Amino acid sequence: MPVNVSPTASPSGNDLEAVARSGSRFRRMAVRIPTYLADVKENPAWLPMFMLARTMPGRRAHWAMSAKYKPTAASAPSIFGDLDAAKIAEDLRRDGIFANLQLPAEIHTEIRDFADATPCFGNFNRGLEFLAPQHDEAEATFGRSLLSGHFFERSLDSPGVLAVQKDPLLIDVARHYLGATAQLITTRIWWSFPTKASSEADRSLASLDKFHFDLDDWRMLKFFFNLVDVDEGTGPHVFVKGSHSRRKTKHQYTLLVGHPADEVLDYYGADKAVTLTGPAGSGFVEDPFGFHMGTVPTTRPRLMMEVGFGVSKPSRRRFHGEPVIRR
Ligand SMILES: O=C(O)CCC(=O)C(=O)O
Question: Which residue from 1, 54, 82 is spatially nearest to 257, judged by alpha carbons?
Fold first, then answer.
C-alpha cells in the first residue's frame, strides 16, 4: 500500500511555528559551523555550491549546463515492480515529490529486524550506543533524552538496505530527474524516538520539527521509506509541494536553511504541506531543495531509510548521515 499523502493537519501551523522559532538565529547558525568547516576542508568545491545552490539563478545555471540523460536500454527488473521512471521524474518536476512506492514485505521486515538487533548511536553521538528496544533504559543509563538512533556505516550490514540502495529504479529516476551525472550520495537508516525533553539543538541536528531545505549538493533527490507503520503519532515526514521550484527571495539569500513554519506555509501555501504517513514499507521520493522536515514522534518510534542522489562527489562523512559532533 502506498504512502498516504494527506494535507498536513498535524502538527498545526501554530505548533510548528512555536517549535521552529525556538533558538536564536545565531545559535542555529553556530550549531552548523563545524559541519561547514569540515565540508570545505574535505572538498573545496563545496564552498561555491554552498553559496550559490541556494539561489534560483545559481541552480538554473547549473541545471542548464548539466548533461542530459538519454536512456539506451530498457530498465532492469525492480523490487518496486513496473514503475515508469520518466513519469516519476515528471511528477517530481511538477510537485517536488512522488509518493507511491512500496517495498516488498521481506525487505522491510529484514531491515526492521536488523534495526531491532543492531546497536544504534543516540543523537548522532558514537558514545551513546544502545539497542532500540532498550531506548528507555538507555535514556536512564546515559542520563539524557535520546531523540534519534543512527546506524551510520552499519546500515550497509543489512541485506535489505543493500537491495533497496542498488535497485535499478532508484538510479533510473535519479538520472531522469537530475541528469546523466546522478550518483549515489547517501544511504542511511535511523530511528526517531518519542522522548520527554529533547533540546532544540538535538532536534535541529536530527532535522526534526523545523522546515528546512537540504544543501549538500547542487541538485539532489532523496528516496525515503517508512520501515514501521507511520501515523500522526509516529513522527511522519512533511513536505511542502512546489517549494522546490519557486523560492521567496528571503529564502534564497540567507545562510539559514531552516525557516519558521508560518513564513514557509504563508508563502508556499498551507494546503501544499503533505504528511507522509503510511504502512511499513511505504515510500516516497522528493527533491529536498523543497521545504521538508521530520516531526518528533509522540507515541511510537519511527524507523526510516533514506537513499540520496546528487551530482557531485559524495561527502564521506555525510554518506551515512553523520554530522560533525559538537561535543
Ligand atoms: O526525519 C525526517 O523525516 C526528515 C529527514 C530530513 O529532513 C532530511 O534527510 O533532510
Answer: 54
